[in-house]
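User: Okay, second chain of the day. Same drill as before: sequence in, structure tokens out.
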Amino acid sequence: MSQLATNKHISQETSRKVLYVHLAPGDNIATCLKDWQVVQANSVNEAQLALDSNRFQVALAHIGKLNDKQRGDLERLVENAPPLNWIALIEPEYLNNDITNELIYDYFFDYYTLPLKDKAPYLCATLGHAWGLGRLREQEDDLRRYREECQMVGASPAIRLVFSQIRKVAGVDATVLITGSSGTGKELIARAIHQRSQRCKGPFVALNCGALPENLIQAELFGHEKGAFTGAHCRKIGRIEAAGGGTLFLDEIGDLPLSLQVNLLRFLQEETIERLGGNETLYIDARVIAATHRNLEAEIREGVFREDLYYRLNVLSIEVPDLKEREGDIELLANFFFRKFTEGRHHRVRGFSRRAIAAMNCHDWPGNVREMINRVRKAIVMSENRLITAADLGLGGTQDQVVPTLEEARNLAERQAIRRSLKKTGNNVSLAAKLLGVSRVTLYRLMEKHQLANVR
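Assistant: Same drill. Structure tokens below.
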């Protein structure tokens, strides 16, 4: 079995490693890299072993003339390797081959022609530059993973206010109501609250109240005893009981049937439940966080949501802004999801074109962050370009998505402000006018101008 060779001519102080994949006949340049710890592999299989057992920021590959199988093996090696910068070494005569040129263009950070002669110092400088970029990428990935874990993605005033509210709410063991449009990330905010609370070591149990038929929600929430109903062959612990010591997240609480709202209210008041079909009273210590895209105050007036339950849930509240209201966050989020979906994989795409960024900034994002995730993920897979275009994102050509005029921007800002004030006040025009600092007559005129009636 062949062994991986390691260059011994290195300073004891150096810690920079480079993988040298020597696939073509010719001079071995490992001895030229005196300030590097060189791990040499003489085949793709040996290179894979080296990648499995070492951590590299940069790699050299002497590719020479490759047949179809060798080229395919090298491509798979690079694609499956952890993120690192590859530098090609090749004889000049092989650069006349279009397939080889495409291979270098698609997969390599840089290339040098052989023999090196007096170019060795320049190669070492390029290696150092690539190694440094790799370290920066690694640090950024660590920071990104931390942000992803904490769900702290965004820099706009609107989302920074939400982050501030998360920190405040997390320290208080009370029920929380999170409101906002679909796709804005309400469950992520609930998880962030849980992760920062004293209950962080306990379970986080989620239930979508709108995803189950009415006859199943009670059993899911409160559990059931064996024989409680047809098909109940054994005892089942409900979501409330499973969340003991932790947090229960009730998504789309506005979809909870009116007949079950009284049962949830009793748990919030007394912190006790009874399993369906049982008579044992169980004390459950669980914090409840609820979320909805509905206007619960309007639903109270319509008689489809209990007012007493609303006030029990709305002890603390967080309103999540729509993506279009998060000025400056769209590009940041797009790059965040791009890195998330490409990390550890090789893709032809390297990011977004400036026209794609402009198109995203002009898009209204009715599906909010969930829509962005879908568009970015699809574009990464389907794009045949080096940079994702507006068309790849399904946003059409960018010629029609130019910077809006001042009049258009003013109208958009007015619509957003009116919608938010009406939503916050439950369509009470007098209160909304006070929030906006205008008269009722002016607000009515603006509502007519922007064709806004009741906002939900």
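The first strand starts at residue 5 and ends at 6.

User: Thanks, on to the next one.
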